[in-house]
Structures
1.
Amino acid sequence: MTEAVPVATTVETTCCIAGGGPAGMMLGLLLAREGVDVTVLEKHTDFFRDFRGDTIHPSTLDLIDQLGLRAEFLRIPQDSITTLDIVVGGTRLTPVDFGTLRGPNKRIALMPQWDFLDLLAREATAMKNFRLLMGTEAVDVLRGRGIATGVTAAGPDGPLRIKAALTVAADGRASRLRHAAGLRPETLGVSIDVLWFRLPTPPSRPPDTLGYLRNGTMLITIPRSGYYQMGMLIPKGSFVRMRALGLGAFRERIRANAPFLGEAAESLRDWADVKLLSVQLDRLKQWSVPGLLCIGDAAHAMSPVFGVGVNYAVQDAVAAARQLAPPLLAGRPVDQAMHRIQRRREWPVRLMQPLQQQVHKVISSAASANLDAMPQWQGRLATLGSKAARPVMARLVGRGFLPERLHGGEHGRLPG
């Protein structure tokens, strides 16, 4: 006897967004505020996952203010950093000082990304024209006459067919919808990977420091409440060899780079505590096909350098909402709007990604140098150089090349 195939439930919406990350949730919220009927699909059943992009930069803090969500945002437990220090050998440098920025937001907020997404979801789901389907993954693109007309999806109650005037792929750097639409990213050269792990904050700790570069190792030390979110930059593809040397050698590498973490490193008892982030740097030449648009990591995967990936994704969402809301509300085609979105957001990406590549090269070359033997005059020169660069670097890291804005009114409406 042949087993019956479940009949897919059909849902109709104006805009279907695949992916409930920062790009997808921000776009859904903004479009819903403009009156567009929106359905967001998130493949997980909740947002509580081990995100690594836990930095909320000044550009995104500005948008939170413009959305009227500052009070709600500040009620979420969070930490702040106002400078990005790096210790090179024995010399402390401060190339980024957000105190030089204009406006009220002169810091990076540090919070679990699930709290940020919960905030956006609560605001959006209060609107009748917004639907969030958790535990629902977009698996393929529906097509009609060469145009994307929605998606097929797998939900907790069975298969779904979601018909939409516009589909947005915000489903990350391994986007299934991007692949289904025949869009292939251009891969850029990357020389590093990152190992992520946590260490408890030692009783005696130095000033907040982004990273330590010495003895051939670059360590990232992001301060959080009671612990450091740690990152170790390693040559791409070298994790297998590092594991073969044993966890003891890994702990010793931490101690040699940052001696104050020597005791804390003993808390690493298993390689399961160390997560490999295979660094990608790529971008699409074409962000859209008729009926479907890619934004965020689905359009351009960013390196962890400067921590701008989440914030560039949010900027994409703001630019997309501005261009898409009018034609979607009027029932007009959105092809030209999608082209304008790519033209606006592509060039900030094209400026930032080569800078990230250059930082990869600088870190790789510096890691192989004997930085502990840096002459005093070089240390003084580096200190002066970092001081002179602070305003430029604060703007570059904090707000990027083209920060997007909403109207500053009570309802955070999009500019006309």
2.
Amino acid sequence: MTTASTDLIHNDTIDTLLNRRSIRAFKPEPIDERTVATLETVAQHAASSQFLNDWSAIRITDPALKQKMAEYGHQPYIATAPLLYVFVLDEHPNAAIAKAKGIDTDSDEFTLKTSYRFAQAQNDAVLALHAMETAAFSLGLGCVILGSLLNDVDGLIDSLNLPEYTYPVLGLAIGKPDQEPALKPRMPRSMQFFENAYPSDDEATLEPLAEFDEAVHEYYDLRHADRPVDAFSDQIAKNATADMAGHAMAKPVAAQGFRLDR
């Protein structure tokens, strides 16, 4: 179903990425400032669309604020992370620069608030986060990416005092691992990598799905022996009709000054 690891080229970087897993239990040990400086500098070296540097990251050190993040994410372990970041798509400094150069940021002339720039800035924030996560893993640390912080976008924006032309993207918790979870199965490459064009035969593309379902089911059965978890295809079906009203983006995005209709 999947490519055996022995069929791949191996080096330290590739093995770090192949062994990536989410860590949700951390030892109560602080991360030294040299490591912090290294991780933050690595994030700054990620690719940036048109070199706009349109992202930022807020390091959460206040225990009360960490607890607030855990409440937003509905995950108590977030408050225990020795290092906790919220990555933000951030056109705010660029807007200030443009304004200083005589551009009216309230006018249609100012295009850093358009849907294209929003998407590109979001991409840049994700690339920076992934660079930081990979660097952390390479140093023997554990991480978990926190999309759950977006359960309460309004609260998150308020708690972090995010100004106009910013929007939270993802959180990242980092620490010394206090668990060693199994590697989660990955779907066959044939279901995610295509050649020249998107395949038109859904039945053929999904042919390996039954075997992948079985692998996912086995993974979750071993992880949650007392709490059965659905197979991958059943999880997709459940999520396809989940109530997403609480995750609607239009109002909070507009409140932050962006125009997704342009």
3.
Amino acid sequence: MPREVRVLAVVAFVVALGFGIVAPAIPLFARDFGVGTTAVGLAVSAFAFFRFVSAFSGGSLVERFGERAVLATGLVVVAVTTGLAGLAGSFPVFLALRATGGIGSAMFTVASLALLLRVSPPTHRGRAAATYQGGFILGGIAGPAAGGLLTQLSPRLPFLLYAVALLAAGAVALVLLRTPAGVPGAGVAGAAPDLERGPVRLRRALRSRVYIAALVANLGVGWVLFGVRNSLVPLYVTEELGRGAAWAGAGFLAGSAAQALGLLRSGRLADTWGRRPSLVLGAALGTASMALLVLPPVTWVFLLSMAGYGLAASLLASVPAALVGDVSPARGGRVVAVFQMSADLGAVVGPLAAGWLTDAFSYQVAFGVSTAVVAAGLVTALALPRR
């Protein structure tokens, strides 16, 4: 495994840890300005929206200036805007800083994944993606717990600590990520000769069934894992199952634990068993897990669904990324950017669509549509070439 993969995994852990620390403080800090609930929601969504709309530009910057420079710059942008947001004296300033932070986050995310895929040989891309995602998951699990405690001390404190952590991560990235520009996979045994070619054009990638399968699978991950699960599941637990919020936390914990355990093997499966069967397995397991929520509400079925989708997500987090690396192994900034945008699009549209379907019909209908979105990934996975 290239050294860069381990460095990127550590940076991903720091980023996810800090984001989890800040997340509980954002609505409380916004409330201190005396704004309403809608404005609080805007403070949360501004970061995600600007991250989505700026991702493609981040991909263009990667192709022009290189992954290392864009990655470090993105981390510095998020660090500075986060630290200043914690010192903001008015809500408009706070909102503008959060939006600018989303731009920096897009730069970091696209650059880090592009670098990961560039330095990883074809035989290790699945494992590299799983290692990288593992850093995000561990940080995401630890962050919110620490954030809740820090927010009780001061709503500003999490912002300042996150800024310091990001600056440290940026310094680590500049020092340790030293793969020479223009030498993809330098020093990596088994690197394929086609890594020396330039980036694949986006138009060409979009004509590939492999790339389309990766996009559709990533859309499902964003829709369910980053969208519907966070917005709809807590309400489903309290209103349909008649349980307390602790049971929603238990469901999230079951999913995160299953995903973390699955990542120990999912990358190896993608590299040894093959991309197609691994993606088919992940999409089929994810479809079946979401379909369980369409059934009449039962607590143990809910917990089984969360654990099952967490296990599926371990495959859906590593295999599609490996497929993108197969399509564009060189510095494919825009190809990677559109891949990342597919998950962000699911995370933005999923909660809105599922919420409207719940209000208009029922939770079961909303979960049924979400199941169909994940099932679309299964259809495209089955259409992949067998080799």
